[in-house]
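Predicting holo structure, glutamic acid bound.
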Amino acid sequence: MNSNVRVRFAPSPTGPLHIGGLRTALYNYLFARKHQGSFILRIEDTDQNRYVPGAEDYIKRSLQWCGLNPDEGPDQGGLAGPYRQSERASIYQEYVELLLEKGKAYYAFDTVEELEAMRQQEQGHAKYDSSTRQSMRNSLTIKQEEVEKLVAEGKPYVIRMLVPEARQIHFVDRIRGEVEFDSAELDDKVILKADGLPTYHLANVVDDHLMQITHVIRGEEWLSSTAHHVLLYEALEWQDSMPEFAHLPLILKPTGKGKLSKRDGQKFGFPVFPLAWQDADPNESFEGFDTFGFNPEALVNFLAFLGWNPGTEEEIFTLSQLTQAFSLDHIGKSGARFDYDKALWYNSQYLSKMDPSVFRDAIIPFLDKAGFDPNHSKLTSICQLMQDRIKTYAELPDACRFFFIDIEQYDEVTISKKWNNDTKLLLKSIRGSLSKSTDFNAEKIKSKVSELINQAGVKFGDILPLLRIALTGEGKGADVFSIMEILGAESTLDRLDKAESVFSGLKPV
Ligand code: GLU
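Done. Tokens:
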């Protein structure tokens, strides 16, 4: 690391990481690498009610799968640790005390009922702010001795930040430009909860400061929180080291209407999580891009383009090419529509260019899952035949099931159109000729069969589909001669024999 750029990805472990979160991680990573800076992983786990066991591990595995390895984080360590907020409680306590001393925060003892009654004012729109705080039970309205007594007695309380009145809060967002909030719109956010842990706002600001974060790149849903954060930087007199902000536009549903949600995956039939997630609750279990058969490099390329573009027509970028090309200036202001067909296109591009042995290894879990023998003696040739014909690894078992099991179903429609006396005779002579062939390779088979077809005067378009159906059950697919070579002479002849009787049974000639 030879620059002072320090960015952090700060997810909350409240469930599996959505691809929107993964895109945030990716942009942080690219920005850090582009500027020879540090990419930091910080786990924001101060909300015990929303904590989901396994989610932190899921986040780390997802980053690793995509090659987005942090320089500092809970597992890597680093000078600014610990990197898990639940392990930093005493640090936040110190800053809460500082804010109380400076009069920028106050104790609030209000009960749930009292808070509810307050909210009912102004037709249910009331907030805990300058218009209501003076009528609530807090250290602004109660004498100091009484406050001390309540604290000593162990009465539950929270600490709220005191939002100044009549202030315009400005900051520059790297994506949206000048942003302005009126302090009248802001409530006195709780910064320390009754359980002694900070809320997101305080922990986030304190950590970004102590970890010397220079750029905060996060989802647009945090834009409005930034106004509170700016006030906290001011209250703590840290405004000179305030990071730059960049709020990323939403990822939209394929329809373009509304934010892509975790349920959209199930609804539209595509993954919205990088890795599959198994939850105790089956309704909360999800497939991932991994189980859908994606190459993580393709996913990364696809995600990079969901909201960013290099300013050229080029679309295929490896992670290191993305790093070179990346810039916050090329992130769009409007939401990016999730286009699964585009994801498939990227994946097929990557699959077709993979090293064959790596492709073969990647296929094995999918064969296992389909119940097909991953130790098939011809697996290398099968993979070679299929590598640029499939869009996901998951498609492979089904696309070439005929190599693993006997044909279960024949394409009857095509048979009924093409099966006649001529094709029947020709199939017989092809079978006869192949049975004598000593050299059973695709090229030789092709020239022999072509010769016979030409002699018979039958159209290639009439016999080849039948030949393919005889061997695979289907009228369309990979090169039929390569299929024969992979099946081998014995299996090819057996299938041709069986086909003749099946075809004649379906359509006697
Ligand atoms: N913990 C927040 C989240 O779950 C992070 C927001 C931020 O990056 O400041 O997304």
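The CA atoms of residues 313 and 377 lie 43 Å apart.
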